[in-house]
Amino acid sequence: MGVAMAGHEFTVREVEVSYPGGDRRGTVLMLPGRAYSCDMSLLAWTTRALQSIGWTVLQAEWDLSAVPAEPHAFIKDVAHQLDERKRPAEPVLIVAKSLGTLAAHWGAEKGYPAVWLTTVLKAAGVYPLPGHSDALAQRIREYPTQNLVVGGTADISWQTGFRGTGQVLEIEGADHSLEVADWRTSVKQHEAVAAAVAHFAVGVAG
Questions:
Q1: Residues 127, 69: Cα–Cα separation, whole Å
Q2: Cβ neighbours of residue 183 under 8 Å, at least 6 residues apart?
Q3: Which of 26, 38, 52, 133 has the smallest number of Cβ neighbours within 10 A?
Q4: Residue 47 contacts by C-beta under 8 Å, 6 or more apart in sequence?
Q5: How confident is the model over 116-174, as pLDDT tens digits?
Q6: How many helices (H) and strands (E) does the chain have?
């Protein structure tokens, strides 16, 4: 489903379950990074891991050119459109990466548990969020319900040693894609993150 917001288009889709598993647990609202789509390794494997334990995954997609200079309202609208497609009376879990973690403000209002991947805690990197990073870091640090935060120590937008109200998985030497120079190690790290997210999601669904 294509949606337009003041000229900024994005797509919401439900991922087909090619590898189903487990009883239905609820709906995942997945928001990618600015230039890191849900089809890329970290989010693709995380999607598969969640599907394997019974979660339906709704994904947002956008072109880089669709993201406005002021992205906060854009991300809130994307999150809202994903939420509109969930099934009533089921658990909801947000899984967001980088730019998508701006949904933390909206998610806190909704009271949804969340997984925050490579959130932009400092205004640094290729796509910094000046004017947003400090507030985002504070929001995630004080997030009011269950949450898992994942970051890498080689990511200049990450705060090494970050702690908040939930679980933190900090990966030594990982960059903003949670990768390192050695591809084999990168594959293992993405596997470990997908497994950690799935384990967290089991606890959310009870």
A1: 11
A2: none
A3: 52
A4: 15, 28, 30, 38, 57, 59
A5: 999 999 877 666 677 788 999 999 999 999 999 999 999 999 999 999 999 999 999 99
A6: 5, 8
Residues 201 and 205: their CA atoms lie apart, in Å, by 6
Q: Are 23 and 54 in contact (CB under 8 A)?
A: yes
With 0-12 / 13-18 / 19 or more C-beta atoms within 10 angstroms meaning exposed / middle / buried, residue 173 is: middle
The pLDDT, as a whole number, for residue 2 is: 47
Give which of 59, 66, 63, 82 is closest to 5, Cα–Cα.
Answer: 66
Tell me the two tokens of residue 163.
């702690």
- Return the closest-CA partner of residue 16 out of 68, 60, 57, 65: 57
Are the C-beta atoms of 77 and 49 separated by less than 8 Å?
no
Whether the model clears a pTM of 0.85, i.e. scores above it, the answer is: yes
Closest Cα partner for 151 from 102, 115, 113, 107?
Answer: 115
Cβ atoms of 27 and 92 closer than 8 Å: yes
| Structure letter (DSSP) for residue 70 | S
Q: Which residues of the chain have pLDDT under 70?
A: 1-8, 17-22, 125-128, 206
Among 181, 194, 91, 198, which residue's Cα sits nearest to residue 145?
91
